[in-house]
Design brief:
The longest helix is centred in the N-terminal third of the chain and has 14 residues. The chain has one domain: 3-Layer(aba) Sandwich (Cytidine Deaminase, domain 2), CATH 3.40.140. Strands 9-8-7-6-2-3-1-10 form an eight-stranded mixed β-sheet. The protein has two helices and ten strands. The chain is globular. The protein is α/β, with parallel strands linked by helices.
């Protein structure tokens, strides 16, 4: 089980709503050993209505990067095949948040696409 700080979740929700109807994508920072997500890192990326992409060559060299977050403008937080392929390339924890961009419309996955429990902490 991973935990995510409440303020990080709030930033994810706000970014997803502000980017809608395009997908938002960002990077998660935290402590992989303790399974804590404590930072949303906004990085250079391309946003589209049915895709998003991180410009990985522009990522900072930061050991706190543990995964990714992206939104789905639809009501499904199920990963696409493209999502599953991307999960194995950057980090160990990945979150998809779907419309209406609330905690209940969010799912967390490991790098292989397996669902992982996510707890919101203060």
């Amino acid at each position: 089980m991973y935990s995510i700080k409440k303020e990080v979740l709030g930033a994810i929700i706000e970014a997803s709503k502000n980017t809608f109807p395009e997908e938002f994508i960002g990077v998660l920072g935290g402590n992989i050993k303790n399974k804590i997500i404590d930072e949303l890192i906004v990085v250079p990326a391309t946003f589209g209505t049915d895709f998003s992409a991180i410009h990985t060559h522009l990522l900072p060299m930061d050991q706190k990067i543990i995964g990714t977050i992206h939104s789905h403008p639809s009501t499904s937080s199920r990963p696409s095949q493209e999502d599953l392929n991307a999960f194995g390339k950057l980090g160990q924890v990945h979150i998809i948040i779907a419309k209406p961009f609330e905690p209940s419309s969010m799912k967390c996955f490991d790098s292989k696409g397996n669902t992982v429990k996510l707890k919101i902490t203060g």
